[in-house]
Amino acid sequence: LTAAVPDRSIEAHARARQNLLTKPAGSLGRLEDLACWLAARLGDVAPAMPRCEIFVFAADHGVATRGVSAFPQSVTEQMVHNFTRGGAGINVLARLADARIEVVDVGVASDEPTPSGATSARIGRGTHDLSRESAMSDAQVTKALDVGARCVEESYARGARILIAGEMGIGNTTAAACLICALTGAEPASVVGRGTGIEDPVLALKRAVVASALQRMTLVAKDAPLRVLAEVGGFELAAITGLYLAAAKRGVPVVLDGFLSAAAALAAVAIEPGARDWMLASHLSTELGHALALRALELEPLLDLKLRLGEGTGAALTLQIIRAALALHREMATFAQAGVSGPADTRV
Amino acid sequence: LTAAVPDRSIEAHARARQNLLTKPAGSLGRLEDLACWLAARLGDVAPAMPRCEIFVFAADHGVATRGVSAFPQSVTEQMVHNFTRGGAGINVLARLADARIEVVDVGVASDEPTPSGATSARIGRGTHDLSRESAMSDAQVTKALDVGARCVEESYARGARILIAGEMGIGNTTAAACLICALTGAEPASVVGRGTGIEDPVLALKRAVVASALQRMTLVAKDAPLRVLAEVGGFELAAITGLYLAAAKRGVPVVLDGFLSAAAALAAVAIEPGARDWMLASHLSTELGHALALRALELEPLLDLKLRLGEGTGAALTLQIIRAALALHREMATFAQAGVSGPADTRV
């Protein structure tokens, strides 16, 4: 599995184009960088806004029985229904961005079948309790990675050229915190946050749960990311990892969301370092360990709006900024076209 | 001239609505605050995206003859042509936001008439050199304020309920720096920046020019903002001030842009403190004194994308974030509607 390589020559041409547009050089700041970054990855010096698809992976977590979330586990399944009816935050932002959204049930803990309107790809009825045993088997991790990869292939065939992976799973910030600690070497105290909004006593419990999971897996090699995923990951986290890996191989840029997304991105980059080249960091979440995870990924988020909802919402919001950056890059007149003089001493 | 008062009761109802939506309370961060802020000002608990209009005020500055800009003065007029043909950054972002744009010539230094496609409201052929004499007469300031006020009335009649004021004027960051220094008491060294991208020697000259202007007007009362505008402002700066004042009186929110916008906002707030209640700070510019000016206004910018183009571009970009915040606020399902359980111990 090897990541594709962005076209640096197209990136250089895009940069040259930016410097011809009727504005002081560099005055559109990160919008200029963003347009050039996308040009290199979409294979077009002045690309139109690519078709985007959003996959929301839903799954449950055995560790939820430890009481680490402010919400009961049943909310995962209830939110899958909400997604299929268009009522969740990610639905609103997908409509606004004109992006196809697909909800993928990779392991909701329910006696009911996956609701119609969502894709059924259940790998289990929730994971095992990661604080006491391996969350998943190796075979389950492989299956989840494959689900993510299949999303890339199917969306690519439909013409999607930019992808977002979102998630829903009560208890999943606990799994993501374990992954981030295991993959970066950071301590739980600097990674474990309040998730959906837990109070101090629950936060202390959640930290202890993460610490005991990390303790349990001291024998797992840090350079064996698939083992780390199996020990303390989750179905949706592994599916997102699989999506990021397949997107990098296929050469499709992905817009990262928040804390969960960063954990999956770290796993993907640990498996294939070249995957990082296809990742765009959308926003800085208020979840404690997110800034640390982004620094480890060496990615700079575009927005800081104090979001912590997940589902892919921060990434979907950022599609609006991406659209603007590409429109400016494509549609602005050049100095020559507009008959505008360049800087006083260096006519452009 | 008294500013309207936002409806705090509608704001409280909007906040209550946010807490019923299917997400952890507060998890949409500043998007929640933004929706509630707009609800209070649009007079609707769950408002649709209001119709927006953008006014770009163009004018020249006598101080440009001192060589304080990287671009020749003729660029102001050339850019007015570019605006009327749709080729500038603000045109692209206005199209994207479906916002009407009007270019208003309040004082371009040209022998040619205002080009068709722009509104002619010339108060002079550029201002006088503010480093040596008053930039404008009191009568000219009054005229410019009236131009801005007229834009509010005309756009209100067309149904616009959110406004952006942008600008174009070679040399105008020098005037804005003078205004910010005079209105906040800050030193030129912490306010005067590189504008369109001047090198160190020109920056030193620009600082000296600002310092001499401030020196010249030591007798002008700090609490006489109209006098300050006349001494060191500009036609477009005064027109924007007039637009902000009239919008506040009319009860129409305005989205501030960057450095120029902040200078005009400070002047407006000095004239009528209640005007601040109608101002939304869109982005933090890289222009040196912008952060200081926003702090003086007690406004927190939404975006930080290293923009420094002006024209209203940062504000127009932020319309995409505003649209998203309002769509989430209006369209997300409540816990009750979606049949989703609230936090474990407090069913919503």
Describe the structure.
2 copies of one chain form a homodimer. The first copy, chain A, is built from 13 helices and 6 strands. Helices cover 47% and strands 9% of the residues of chain A. With 348 residues, chain A is an alpha/beta fold. Chain A has a 6-stranded parallel beta sheet with strand order 3-2-1-4-5-6, with helices on both faces. The model of chain A has no long low-confidence stretch (mean pLDDT 96). The radius of gyration of chain A is 21 Å and the shape is globular. The interface between A and B is large, with 61 and 61 residues.
SSE layout and pairings?
Two copies of one chain form a homodimer.
Chain A: H1 8-18, H2 29-42, E1 52-59, H3 74-85, H4 89-97, E2 100-107, E3 119-120, H5 138-157, E4 162-168, H6 172-184, H7 200-216, H8 225-232, H9 235-250, E5 254-256, H10 259-271, E6 279-281, H11 290-297, H12 313-331, H13 335-338
Parallel strand pairs in A: 1-2, 1-4, 2-3, 4-5, 5-6
Helix pairs in contact in A: 1-2, 2-12, 4-12, 5-9, 6-7, 6-8, 6-10, 8-10, 9-10, 10-11
Features:
homodimer; 348 residues; alpha/beta; 6-stranded parallel β-sheet; 6 strands; 9% strand; globular
Structural class of chain A: alpha/beta
Task: Work out the helix count of chain A.
Answer: 13
In percent, how helical is the residue content of chain A? 40-55%
Largest interface: A-B, 61 and 61 residues
Computed CA radius of gyration of chain A, to the nearest angstrom: 21 Å
Q: Specify the oligomeric state.
A: homodimer
| Widest β-sheet, arrangement of strands of chain A | 3-2-1-4-5-6
Characterize the biggest β-sheet of chain A: 6 strands, parallel
Terminal CA distance of chain A reads: 45 Å
Q: How many beta-strand runs of chain A?
A: 6
Shape field of chain A: globular
Which series of helices and strands of chain A comes N to C?
HHEHHEEHEHHHHEHEHHH
Measured by DSSP, the beta-strand proportion of chain A falls in 5-15%
Low-pLDDT stretches of chain A are none
The averaged pLDDT of chain A comes out at: 96
